[in-house]
Amino acid sequence: MVSEAVKLYELKKKIAEELENRLPSRSVLRARRDPHAKRRPRPCGITIHPGHGCPLKCLYCYIYDMGFTDKVVAYPLEPLELVYALAINPYVVPTRTLAAIGSVTEPLLPQLRDRTIAYLKAITKWLHLPSQISTKVVITPELARELASAHPELSVLISISSLSRYKVLEPNAPSPELRILGGREAAKNGLRVDLFLRPIIPGALNEDVRELLMLAKSNMLKGVVVGSLRITEMILKKLSEAGIRAQELIGRAGAPPKGSKQVPIRTDDIKLRIKAIAWEVGLEFLQSACAASVIAHKIPCGLCRFGPCGGVPGLPSENDVLDFLECVGIRGKVVIADKVVRIAIKPGAKYERKIEWVKAFLEDVYKVPFIVKLMKNNVED
Description:
This protein is of the alpha/beta class. The protein is built from 15 helices and 15 strands. It has helices spanning 4-22, 25-33, 79-88, 113-126, 141-150, 166-169, 176-188, 208-218, 233-241, 246-253, 268-281, 289-296, 318-327, 349-352, 355-366, and strands spanning 46-48, 51-52, 73-74, 99-101, 131-135, 155-160, 192-200, 223-228, 230-231, 263-264, 284-286, 332-337, 340-345, 370-376, 379-380. Strands 1-4-5-6-7-8-11 form a seven-stranded parallel sheet, with helices on both faces. The longest helix has 19 residues, at 4-22. The chain is globular.
């Protein structure tokens, strides 16, 4: 029997070939040069950019340190070009690789809404990627129907950083109450909707946490995803001017940030308090955005220390892994023990270049840890 990894590898090649035959040569060339064809997925998934720039100007947002502005520019790739770029990306696995829509913009802005929906439809039709969208825009009944039609299992995150201080922190965003009511519309259309409490800003989340979580629960949201703050020199300055204690942020960062380098803030103690409140009000507590996506798409995952999420994934057999290695032209040895798959690849420069990719591809297929390394003199090191 053909292993799941081989099936998905062959499916990936078939999709790429069919799309290449459909697209004009200039589109193929443009897609091949695009970062979506090369970018390695983050833990939350492969980031899909329907545009660049954002007018919301949230004080904690790092995209302005990255060179983006408040001017919104739609992404240049057409939907089929984007899907082709993803299909030829060596790290993207059909039906398995998580997709995160947005990243360096608000994906449901009026200027980007149609582009985002078109991307979702194309991704779902061709690659069936488990997809997630994070938004501060109010989801109307019409938009909720469009999202559900584009991707019936879409994971929707309603992003809010504070209930009482949002006007200062998110000056151009709708009120949290309206955002949550929009989340209710998405939930009424069968989508999994979670509160995205991100970023956690020490000093901005105090007495209103319980009220915010109760509001989410009463409006059909399933859980709360927590995300930590990352500060730069500019973000620290903005937050300080807004009344957030800079010294506490610096203390939690370990050192003052310099320039545009993003420094994470330690918030484990705050997350524990949020977890306790979430359980009290009846919300699921999720440590990461990807957890919401795998649950929404019913894909068990045990890749990180926060899991397993969505159930316990099954391990492949040694033959499954060996079949895949043979399919991609690699000789090696496979040992499965302690819920970890270990692969020792035969020596050779052409094999060495594939170690990182083999690990990433197989982990995405089976959602369990793999250890991949070279043998030395045909003996496992």
